[in-house]
Amino acid sequence: MILINTVENSLVDLKNKGNLDVAFDSYNPNGYFEKVYHITYNPKDEEIASENNIIIVCPFYFKFLYKFKDNKKLKLLLYPFIYIFHIFYLAYFINKKNIDIARGRMPYLMSYALGIASKINKIPFIVSLGGDNRLAQEKIGQYHLFNIRWLSYWIEERVINLSNCTIAPNLYTKKYIENISKQQNIEINPLPIRKSFFDDIQIRDEKRENYFLFIGRLIGDKHPDFVINLFSEYIKKNEDREMRLKFIGDGVLLDKLKAQTVKLKIDNRVDFLGFLEADNIKKYIKKAKVSLIPISGFVIYETAIFANPIITSDIEWHSEFIKHNKNGWVCRYLDIEDWSNQLVKLINNYDETLRTSLNLKEEIIKFHPNKIFDKDIEIYNREIYR
Q: Model's pTM, two decimal places?
């Protein structure tokens, strides 16, 4: 069996986010495929050491386009012609390599080209979503494709309708897909978590240190600015002179966030730790008093592995996984008053907080990556032999 795979992000981006090990495991689940051709638009991706029989391919025309990456006008002028050629190239590539099935990792331009090429060759095409793609775009007023709202939404719908099967990570995203498309064949299979985190699933450190933890990219749709405001409000309400706030991650908002802490006069209590590898992230999760997760992808699962007390938002799929007062706490989205009141209660009744968060272990075992990969294989088999 041979799979062709594409994503909207380059592998370099995934490496910078710390998700590359998860990606390679996911591209060839449990080593099921003889070969996986990963098509990329970034020639620097070919410099990344691959594994799991994954062959990274950057077509020559994307290498040509990359030379003009700093000339946005020329790049925009060339892109439509290159994109049309890309579709025909993929159709030729699929036929030449005797590829059995195709998967797009997000429903945008790269997946659309792959979907069309798959239909030309009459092989199954699967696309997956990470969640409600439109919520964050509307929130920050930035759109995935050339910052054009209608184009981003139209392509997303077209890709989903073009696919033989769409994979959603949760029930919330399944309902989202049903609302924006005509797709009927929707499977629920969660996003995979790094296997290395599950090595320590039975380890829980009761000796917590005095800090709250935020893990994620420092960008608008992850709301790190809200977390800083929340921490400032918590200090005022609880008159807590010891608690700190630690950020793991990097991003374009770093300087603005530092300035925000200075303005609020809490800069001496906020630590920006930057990008960290998985082993170091685990150390901070195990010691944190509470994880603050306004909106999340992998992070909410990874912190749950260590039964870390979690506060999250009442949007998207978060309350499917975090059950309020049963295994964690759910607050109104970006409501400082609600979040700060809840945080004060958790810290002032911390023994009960730890007992409640222990219930996360019953839920998280369902998310072991091997189970997720087995479900992927089941979906691939069904679509290939349908």
A: 0.81
